[in-house]
């Protein structure tokens, strides 16, 4: 379950990095923004569906605005500057939310028909968590379809390979970049709101998610969509299994897995040498 | 400036530290704030060596800061170890060792991977500190009761237990930290770290073990972090667990970026701004928790508009003012407009003829120079890229003292061939012998250390350094070997360094441009420096990949003249498309076509060969004959 969620967030991070070459350190904050936007929509309308749509759309808009106003001027600057500026943006997002809504956590209840628990074989499981698995799987599938079965997706994938070439083929890379940033941000925002009923949201929920996402991406291979999915599932399994014994060690195990991958396959499980 | 007054920076920083407690309180700084600035400044000294000088942006410094602090605090509180400074040093050593181990993992990758891995590692430390090790570290309570440092002088004991006495203690150690950091930055290692930042690939190619140097920088940063962590515990009388938090690393990165990376004092300036704003926004403007929002916004704007931080901004401003004064003088040698390439060529010939001939510069002799017989042998060298064969089954031998040319149409595999010879690319099959030694599968760094290097087809320079510094980097590799930890040695202390750099400067005719940054050079000058970088490692076999590429006719003539003087007493292999120049320079020519050796012979034999003409003209003769 957590694995699927991580896979979704990591895909967002990885398609942005793959296409634009920018590692978005504000990605965790965008996850958090999705949760808050959804929570706000929910408290006005009482509809979970509207909350999900609002969360995803709002973060996509934020992503596009940020890309247009700031990030696009950083494509030609060194990676370090990109890291610094997105890191700063992340802080601005988190602190803005804290300013308006305080540090206390907020809860979004799952829709009524998904509340309660479902017996699965030997144990009971919260219904929403099961549904979430389905929701995230559908989202990943949609992302897959967009990336691999549409014209835009083809351009994005070509952009991951060689954005200069795509540009010189007469495709307006600028617009594609904007869209990619929006879609990547939306993946984080969507994950943020659908996850809200599971863990209550607070301004700094994004930080832990960001770190886990990094591990996922390093394991899977940066810039690789299948790698992000695979890495997400692996990381999710590691955290779930370790948590059964001792939650304190889940990070340690995650780190051990990352180290193993780095030693054995420095470019990630499904990554290829090239981009640094 | 540094050259004339070697201790100027040290003296100024000592003076600054003495004056600060008398001035800063009037500007609204509380004594604890000033002490805090020093701790962050100390933390930042190491980080700036890692980020500003080596170009490695780590978001995981909190791991070492926390470790150093916790170990020292644990010794002093739980174990009741009575000596403050030894505890601090033990903490530092533990942090250093951990830094080494973490560095081994994190430095397997560079760029954004490195940043991501450091974040993940730091987070692991945070969790370990909070959960499995909370019995030792106090978990979320931290370790209270860290004693204040004291100095026993025999007749009396000084207790550093008030804010201002603590200031003298911290200022002393900050000064020591600064002096050490300045030594490191000015040492050969410091020069190489900057080269690694600017162009890691070339730094490796001129013969430096860049992984070792990166690890060195990482360990230095960890040591500073560990020591600063210990100071934090002493200063507060309490070791807080949040030293381990991601926020700590982030704050350090932001302070350094605000102050200006690559200056050593950037973090101190950044910390001053940061903590002042923190106090000011909270206490004076009553913004409460939202002070961080304001700082975040300030930071984003700063990264957008003042990329080199405050110190960089001040430098740029003063350079701008100085530049504005200079501009009133008319430029001395305004370029003369030339109409055609032919005119230019004529002018060049005339001009070159007017100049006195360059004094002959004998090559620095290695023992091998007097040898005869083959210096380099390639047997059955093959390289496949997927299904594409770039080179197939090349046999190639060059003798000591020979000047060899390689020609071939575009795509003939010349550059791939060179890359295999210098061990930059691993051959799919085949063997390379250099001076009788099998070097197949060695690294480019090792090949260069053995005396085999090349200049690149596309300039690979250290762009933020001056011409002299560029050549120094290359010469250091030959003089010091691929890795040496002379962290506290001055560059001037490296014997023969200056001679070798000056010698190379003359060889490539850049003596007048020695102190110009590479980014300000003209293209032709950069091209000569490219050759110079390879030359400065005093190779016994020098490979030049299209040294004349992209030059104007005039620059070509000058460069050919230089290459002739360089060639005396050396073994060289040249690739170029300018046949006239190449045939003038070399004794034998190898022709490559479609990844194979087509022909080998003297320039005259090659010129008249019909197969060569066909290779270049694609059988035009045949077509013409048929018409």
Structural class of chain A: mainly alpha
Q: Runs of chain A with pLDDT <50, length 5+?
A: none
Rounded mean pLDDT of chain B is: 81
Structural class of chain B: alpha/beta
Radius of gyration of chain B, in Å, reads 30 Å
Characterization of the model:
The complex is a heterodimer of chains A (about 280) and B (about 625). Chain A has about 280 residues and is mostly helical. Chain A is about 70% helix and about 5% strand. Chain A has one domain (about 1-205). Chain A is built from 11 helices and 2 strands, in the order ααααββααααααα. Chain A has a two-stranded antiparallel sheet with strand order 1-2. In chain A, a hairpin with a 2-residue loop joins strand 1 and strand 2. In chain A, helix 1 packs across helix 9 and helix 9 runs parallel beside helix 11. With about 625 residues, chain B is α/β, with parallel strands linked by helices. Chain B folds into 2 domains: about 20-320, ABC transporter involved in vitamin B12 uptake, BtuC, CATH 1.10.3470; about 375-620, P-loop containing nucleotide triphosphate hydrolases (Rossmann fold, 3-Layer(aba) Sandwich), CATH 3.40.50.300. Helices cover about 55% and strands about 10% of the residues of chain B. In chain B, strand 2 (about 150) and strand 3 (about 155-160) form a beta hairpin. In chain B, helix 2 (about 30-55) crosses helix 11 (about 245-260) and helix 18 (about 465-480) packs parallel to helix 20. The longest helix of chain B is centred in the middle third of the chain and has 27 residues, at about 210-235. Chain B is elongated. In chain B, about 45% of the residues are buried. Mean pLDDT of chain B is about 80; it is low at about 330-340, about 355-370 and about 620-625. Chains A and B meet through helix 4, helix 9 and helix 11 of A and helix 5, helix 11 and helix 13 of B.
Concise synopsis of the structure shown:
The complex is a heterodimer of chains A (276) and B (627). By secondary structure, chain A is mainly alpha-helical.
